[in-house]
Amino acid sequence: MANIILLNPEIILASAGLCILLAGAFINENRARLLFHFGTISAAAVLGMVLSQAAFFAYGTGTMWILDPGAQLFKFIILAATVFTLLLSVNYSAIQPRHIGTYTALLLWASCGMMLLSGAMDFIYLLISLELISISCFILTGFEQK
């Protein structure tokens, strides 16, 4: 159970995506841009958590995943790219205001899957993280079609 604490960045990022998706269903379209800011703040906070765990080396739940400097480096790169993507997407006109919550949540879930993949050591864990990435990216790919 103590090793599950090392997955807190991924759990928080997935929870933030769920909160953004739920808030996007009930928020006014005039205030929908706030969801981008909430997603950016969430990803930046998780980036700070990843940087604070940089000295650890641990196995999680047997040997399903590993937390090592290589995984930490890729988590840092993924989260930095997510923050920059969200910052650049704020004024992107192709996203309709009613879909901003969905777009932001899918982006956070895709980055969560990438973070899980960076530390995967078990085949099942690898497949689950690949599915999380692929489903999110497939939906994001078809996002701009009219």
Précis, in short:
The protein is built from 5 helices and 2 strands; from the N terminus they run ααββααα.
Summarize the structure in words.
By secondary structure, the chain is mainly alpha-helical. It has one domain (2-144). 66% of the residues lie in helices and 4% in strands. It is built from five helices and two strands, in the order ααββααα. Strands 1-2 form a two-stranded antiparallel ribbon. α2 packs antiparallel against α3. The longest helix has 21 residues, at 69-89. The protein is elongated. It starts with 7 loop residues before the first helix and ends in a 5-residue tail after the last helix.
Which strand-content bin applies to the residues? under 5%
Low-confidence stretches: none
* Class by SSE composition: mainly alpha
The profile of the biggest β sheet is: 2 strands, antiparallel
Q: Give the fraction of residues assigned to helices.
A: 55-70%
* Strand segment tally: 2
Give the CA-CA distance, first to last residue: 46 Å
* Count of the separate structural domains: 1
Rg estimate, integer Å: 16 Å
Mean pLDDT: 88
- Number of continuous helical runs: 5
> Could you state the order of secondary-structure elements as H and E?
HHEEHHH
Strand order of the largest sheet: 1-2
